[in-house]
Fold each of these.
Amino acid sequence: MAKRIDLKDLNVFYGAFKAVEDVTMTVEPRSVTAFIGPSGCGKSTLLRTLNRMHEVIPGGRIEGSVHLDDDDIYAANVDPVAVRRTVGMVFQRPNPFPTMSIADNVAAGLRLNGLKNKKVLAEKVEASLRSANLWNEVKDRLSKPGAGLSGGQQQRLCIARAIAVEPQVLLMDEPCSALDPISTLAIEDLVTELKSTYTILIVTHNMQQAARVSDRTAFFNLAATGKAGRLIEMDDTQKMFSNPTQRTTEDYVSGRFG
Amino acid sequence: MPSITGVSAVDELPGPEGHGPLQGDRASTGQLGDRLFSGTARGAGLLVIALVSMIAVFLLSQALPALAKDKVSFLTSTQWDVDGTPLQFGIANMLWVTVLSSAIAMLIAVPFGVGVALFITQYAPAWLSRPAATLVDLLAAVPSIVYGLWGLQVFGPHMAGVQADLERLFGWFPLFKDAGVGAASTILTVAVVLSIMVLPIVTALSREVFAQTPSSHTDAALALGATRWEMIRTAVLPFGKQGVISASMLGLGRALGETVAVMIILSALADGTSWSWSMFNGGETFASKIANNAAEFDSPQKAGAFMAAGLVLFLLTFVVNVIARIVIERQKAFTE
């Protein structure tokens, strides 16, 4: 189910502004890759190009190519909607649909895919909530609004919603930045569990988090404000945090700047 | 926005943190400026409540003496004889014409207005959405008398074909039965004209709430692989639902109370015309009846009869608003 991701000479633009420049990288299936770097260096933008969510912002476009295994997700005949059904995303702020119950939130993606059978829906909702380590906390109030949960629970609900449609890749854009340390830990444990099934990319500002959950780490930086972000270095997480090749990487991960 | 319904979309918009926008924070410091402002604000609030109560009291006090002398059932009688003694007047006709014309107007205006608002906020390219919004708003600037003239002279005659077809297909159903009134002067024609008058209200408020859909909601839907329309269904419409209900209530208030356009278009029926449920009938709404007879308020008794009709219109809008409030409240559990 999990797929390899290949980026080649990727440039991302918003209108005339170049946000990300010349990124080439490979992400192996069933691994966790962390994107780190100072604010504005294009980590989130790059993440959004992997499910074409950058196109939602007016003027968003890319040059270069993105492949999932052998499929070019920017080929002319590819519908961005289809891409997003195979590449799930979890956002910075938990964003369950406020008018939907917990169960309906998880089922939302399945319903979009045309699944109507109530029994199958209920089974998949349970399975997804179990995978997201949320089932025991919500099983007695599945019909209650998702917005009534705590922040950490809401974020796990969003993860359940994303994995319910069985994506091949899971993108996480600073999923813990709005959460307390205990909820953060719960999400990190979850990421480690989900790794066996999905290819996971996680943007984070938290060095310890990157070190704890990821197998590989990519460090991005920008030359100056208003310039495009670049991939400085990508390597095994352990190496990135102990003995990186680039000086700026070492400065960044050790907290000497940024 | 001034309105006789008192429901406004602004009341329903959540603040940045999700709670209502007008919750006190108990931050009063007791300083002069603070006390002055809170005093003025409280005064304005109380004044509005006092005004509404006084209108109700005024209508009641004027209507009750006439009602006491009414010899037929006020609510169910179709007679309207306020000149002779005994006094005989009932509102059944007006109530039906008012409710039917407004209901048809809303059936047309709400889906249409929501559609226009969705087009402007979700589909139209930036260069088109602003002019389109302005044009729709301009519909609200057209005076009702112009709508009335246009409805009677220009639009009404075109309804003849529609009416003939509807009568042929559904004539067996009382609502579509031929009532022998010219197509330009029927309840249906009035309803269509009313729907155009209501459209800018529904569109403007719906547009406001749709445009405020948080991008986190729309992103969530899009990232799940929703198409544009699916995104609208899962994120935009649920978020805007309360606003659309509020907008519809404002529009309904306008439709129920509209006077001049209705008066010009709708042909009043002669006394003793037999009852008809048909939308191809003529008749009078509360507002047009009162306006048509404004010259005759020469005795307290006569005036009282019309006041009683006005009171029912007042209560009707009030009830509509209460129902809207209940609907909105019931959904609140899911939006906070």
Amino acid sequence: MYTDNTISYTSVMRQASVKNAPDILRAQNLSIGYKAKGKVTPIGSALELTLQPGQFVCLLGPNGAGKSTLIRTLAGIQNPLQGKVYIGGVDVNIIQKTTLAQKLSLVLAENVQAGNLNVYTVLTLGRYPYADWFGTLRNHDKVIIKEAIRATGIEKYLDKQIHQLSDGERQKVMITRALIQDTPLIILDEPTAHLDLPNRVEIIRLLRRMARQTKKAILLSTHELDLALQTADKIWLMMPNQSLITGTPEDLILNGTFEKAFHRSGFDFCRETGTFKVNTPEDHKRIQLKGDGTLYFWTRRALEREGFHITESSETVLYIQEHHHEHCWVFESEGTAIRFNTIESIIEYLRDRFLHQESTFEKV
Amino acid sequence: MAEITKSIPFDELELPALTPKFSWIVAMIFSVLFFLVLDLVLGSVTIPVTEVIKILTGQGSGNIAWLTIVQNIRIPKALTAILAGSALSVSGLQMQTLFRNPLAGPSVLGVTSGASFGVAILMLGTGHVTSNVAIRQLGIGGSWLIILAAAIGSAIVLLMIIGLSLRIRDNVILLIVGLMLSNLIIAVVSIWQYFSEPEQIQDYLMWTFGSLGGVSSSQLNILSIAILIGIALAFISSKFLNLLLLGESYAASMGLNLKVVKILIIISTSLLAGAITGFCGPIGFIGIAVPHLCRAVLNTSDHRVLVPSCCLLGATIMLVCDIVAQLPGHHSILPINAVTAIIGSPVVMWVILKQKNIRSSFS
């Protein structure tokens, strides 16, 4: 595999034009946390972070790890305990509010509830940082508004009142408003918190598409581990020891960072599947599963839910047989073979069988 | 990408118009004019419309009594009604948005009682009572003093409320605290009343009933300047108020300087509510009811529209209240505070029942 010519890749090897693209956001030696009544409660310290144009970054971490505090500090809402945050090269705590609003837009988890406020009015508010005192829309503003509406596909409810929308639609409107604010950086604090799964997927996909298409840097904090792992260019992972580890999702999974971050007793992150292990296998339930593809995946899921340990070493074997569009399962143990047509029937059978086994074990 | 191709082509995408229904605005202007004339016509003595219009257009009138009544009594009173209606409505509108609470208004959050407290302290200091008579005795300089005292009184209460709102995020709790604060101030004023002379108490009670008739022509000039400044400030802040509808965090993220804007709104609100309370007594319900009516009628939350339309509708309703208070054809006058409550509370009830989304108006 290795030859004498093999060299180690470093980012120095990137093309100069790409390499020298300025960071949209940079945090140096950043400590975050709260100061109350002279008592300092640090949440994260010595953080070094950067965001480049076109990057879609997900901020993950267990509850209480300080995701919101980090978001608030990066957005300049809260002062850092130490260190600096630069947006577009300027210190966030010195920058003028209106200038900051042209560089950074925010989408929050909180629901906007305002009666008699129609969607289009909310969208036009996005042009506030650029508008004159009375907020007249110029043609240029209207073009940007139209582009954003087209990008997020919210044409249908432009005339609706904001309180008539579903949570998902409302969050899309707020994201469109952020796009209309036309900033190189968009930060979203748990934008999918109140949404159902299809809406969560849609919002995350929309955001990633925006990052690709518009070269905006998009940072969002989320609890959607699964979606984040699938879509993010980079993960920022808040660790229990107040540090923050960044990297490509796959790297973080492979080097065990995820396991460390989410480690709790009886609650483990599975490196193989990138999900949390919900089921714990029981010792006496061992089975070998033979098959492949989708059928294998879902059969395995069902067996694991029942507490089975899938292992090559077991004499008990479940075969998946597939012919054209038909499939069945064959269970083989101690010379007998039984055929099943549904997973439900397998589970039914296995439950009875292993219940019996359990009692025999007890006798021994 | 499929989503994009499915959507309406770029050029065909029509952006909705932001301009309000002009017919409504025109109707509001006409209703102000209509009730203004009606207010001048009706009263203990009914003066013919033609004569009123003649007097208004400067042609005078054959009947000296009518001329005097209209010029010296009814015109100042009607103008005061217009000013009071506009000022209280606009201050209520600003407070509802600032506190994100549909029940906020000058009389609810203690701003009015703050104003009366300011006036009471002024009167106590100068040895007078808070009565219209006493106010009149103070002259032009005194008029400014009253506006200042009332405005400072209400500003102090508003600042306390704002200070509390930083700690109390829950609007309902804030509202209750505001009500209690209001009661506290009223109690302090009552204690002072208790130790006052009987005639002073009567004067004070008369003042609490509210009256539009106590403002003289010279005081009217000062009152109009104060109100115009207040409304101008509100109009200037209308864009900021729009941003505040999305909540303070969003507003700040869009570049709004919350501190400056809050101060601007507090100055405007306390000037408007304070000045009117100082001169006309505490007038309830207008400040809560009119903004809701405007939102319901115009179906908008855009303050660039709401501020002027609140002025128009507030003026109209106040003129109507004044007409009712005069009990046309009778020689007695109802206290204006009672009339605004009688007309105002059904309006508030109607709005709340009709507009089911009132709870969601402000989170």
